[in-house]
């Protein structure tokens, strides 16, 4: 299957100046890192008026290239870039003040280009530039943050390290095979016009290292009086939807045969079957190497020829291995060389939340809060990795024998960083379990962290009442017609302000829900006067649909009585 193939080169010189305050770097990794993170090119021009322009430029270039490839694979490029650049800017600003006593101590321009899969991501601040050559068109892809004063004077309006708050341009767009990208500092583009730059890129598109040198030499010939740096990246190939090759990689491990107690699979002795569905089987097993009990999850042979299912199964393991929380199921590394498709998790000796709810039909508020808070800790670990569970329900939550709550099953988990990678498969939003699925999924929209908050709110509501927050199962057609049923109709002991917190968490419109998990948890324990006042409002104000429905019933009853008597 074709992969992202880029040839690149760069060159930097001091020019007529005594020192070179420019800095640039390119990293083209191999293997999984190339797929998961892509290629990165960074160029910076330390501000000549600052105390340590070169140090600032070097710090940004080296810092980004080191840190970007160490960020979680589950993060999007945008998230990774913004977090890294925000941290670098804060460091430059604080160090500039500490070392030099001035906001101009460590200041630099910066342009970053990341090419991941079939998309380019640009981060830019200052007057370094990124150009694109495509189908004979040469276009500047960044905007100079420079203010002109008078006829021949200008200054930077934005830069790294100049302010505690970083205002950086970000954009993304699809790349194409044959594209060429040129990154330059102002010592180049202030002295070489776009027409000449285009010609030099075209002439050197197959030899980018030499091309970067030629462009620098041209600026020198044109009497550039500044440092000069150029980077040239040429895209020779892109990952494409070669379904046969993609399927071959997915099926490198055969499905395991049906397993029976006593059988041994790759060093795991099967003890008993825990659960089976038409999609997967779950077994309790003994790790013969460590003599500990573990759980094996295997795919059903019904899906041996289904690449979408296999891809999803593999991503369950991928997601679990990247989560580190006491409240999320721990996925383990298998021993030795795996011969079949399965994955291994810790064994949780306990019960599902569904069974706990059956055993505790009238839990106290404190019991509910304790469980919901623990689920929240697990969800927070997922959200920090830019993962959305998407199928949170009592059956997917376990309580161990010590009362520790853990989220299990990542089969529907959406991973933002993986969604950026082009494959032949359609990775649509996976619809979770009805009654717990956020309404936006029913409308065909993408989910967010607020979608998990909705599911969490439904679980909390059901724990306290044994009921669901809406009178009927939500559908795309009826969700604008049904209204939230106050939990106090089922459990009068529930405070009005807890009812208000639950109503907000399960709002049909995600924009009306809590924006953060911590907000929801806080409101479950701290009275909000707004919710108390809401419950004191007339029915027509707090629930107009219910008011008019009741009025219609009364009117109908009165009319029938009048006709009869």
From TrEMBL:
InterPro entries per UniProt: Kinase-like_dom_sf, PPM-type-like_dom_sf, PPM-type_phosphatase-like_dom, Prot_kinase_dom, Ser/Thr_kinase_AS
Record domain Protein kinase: where: 268-529
UniProt organism field: hydrothermal vent metagenome
Residues of the PPM-type phosphatase domain: 7-235
Protein name: Serine/threonine protein kinase
Record's keyword annotation contains Transferase: yes
Molecular function terms from GO: ATP binding; protein serine/threonine kinase activity
Keyword vocabulary terms for this entry: ATP-binding, Kinase, Membrane, Nucleotide-binding, Serine/threonine-protein kinase, Transferase, Transmembrane, Transmembrane helix
Transmembrane annotation, as ranges: 546-564
């Amino acid at each position: 299957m074709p992969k992202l193939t880029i040839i690149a080169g760069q060159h930097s010189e001091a020019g007529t100046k005594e020192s070179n305050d420019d800095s640039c770097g390119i990293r083209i990794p191999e293997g999984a890192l190339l797929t998961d993170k892509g290629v990165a090119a960074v160029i910076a021009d330390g501000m000549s008026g600052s105390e340590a322009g070169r140090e600032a430029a070097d710090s940004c270039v080296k810092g980004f290239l080191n840190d970007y490839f160490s960020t979680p694979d589950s993060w999007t490029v945008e998230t990774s870039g913004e977090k890294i650049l925000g941290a670098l800017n804060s460091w430059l600003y604080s160090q500039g003040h500490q070392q030099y006593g001035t906001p101009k101590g460590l200041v630099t321009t910066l342009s970053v280009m990341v090419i991941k899969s079939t998309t380019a991501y640009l981060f830019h601040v200052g007057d370094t530039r990124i150009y694109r050559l495509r189908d004979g068109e040469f276009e500047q892809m960044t905007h100079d943050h420079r203010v002109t004063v008078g006829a021949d004077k200008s200054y930077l309006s934005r830069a790294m390290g100049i302010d505690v708050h970083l205002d950086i341009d970000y954009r993304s767009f699809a790349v194409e095979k044959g594209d060429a990208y040129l990154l330059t500092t102002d010592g180049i583009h202030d002295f070489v016009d776009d027409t000449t730059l285009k010609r030099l890129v075209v002439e050197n598109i197959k030899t980018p290292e030499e091309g970067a040198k030629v462009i620098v030499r041209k600026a020198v010939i044109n009497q550039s009086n500044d440092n000069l740096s150029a980077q040239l990246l040429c895209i020779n190939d892109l990952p494409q939807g070669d379904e046969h090759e993609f399927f071959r990689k997915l099926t490198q491990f055969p499905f395991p045969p049906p397993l029976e107690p006593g059988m041994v699979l790759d060093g795991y002795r099967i003890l008993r079957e825990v659960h089976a569905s038409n999609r997967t089987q779950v077994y309790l097993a003994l790790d013969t190497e460590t003599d500990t009990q573990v759980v094996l999850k295997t795919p059903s042979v019904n899906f041996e020829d289904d690449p979408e299912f296999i891809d999803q199964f593999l991503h369950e393991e991928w997601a679990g291995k990247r989560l580190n929380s006491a409240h999320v199921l721990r996925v383990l590394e298998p021993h030795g060389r795996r011969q079949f498709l399965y994955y291994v998790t810790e064994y949780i000796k306990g019960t599902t939340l569904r069974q706990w709810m059956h055993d505790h039909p009238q839990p106290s508020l404190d019991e509910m809060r304790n469980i919901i808070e623990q689920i929240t800790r697990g969800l927070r670990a997922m959200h920090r990795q830019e993962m959305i569970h998407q199928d949170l329900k009592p059956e997917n939550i376990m309580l161990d024998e010590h009362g520790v709550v853990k989220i299990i099953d990542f089969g529907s988990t959406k991973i933002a960083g993986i969604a950026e990678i082009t494959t032949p498969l359609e990775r649509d939003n996976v619809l979770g379990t009805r009654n717990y699925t956020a309404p936006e999924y029913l409308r065909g929209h993408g989910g967010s962290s607020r979608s998990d908050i909705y599911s969490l709110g439904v679980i909390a509501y059901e724990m306290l009442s044994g009921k669901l927050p809406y009178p009927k199962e939500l559908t795309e057609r009826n969700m604008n017609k049904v209204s939230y049923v106050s939990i106090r109709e089922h459990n009068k002991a529930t405070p009005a302000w807890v009812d208000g917190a639950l109503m907000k968490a399960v709002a049909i419109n995600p924009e009306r829900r809590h924006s953060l998990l911590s907000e929801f948890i806080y409101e479950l324990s701290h009275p909000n006067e707004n919710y108390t006042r809401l419950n004191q409002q007339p029915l027509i104000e707090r629930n107009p649909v219910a008011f008019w429905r009741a009025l219609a019933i009364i009117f109908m009853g009165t009319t029938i009585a009048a006709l009869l008597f």
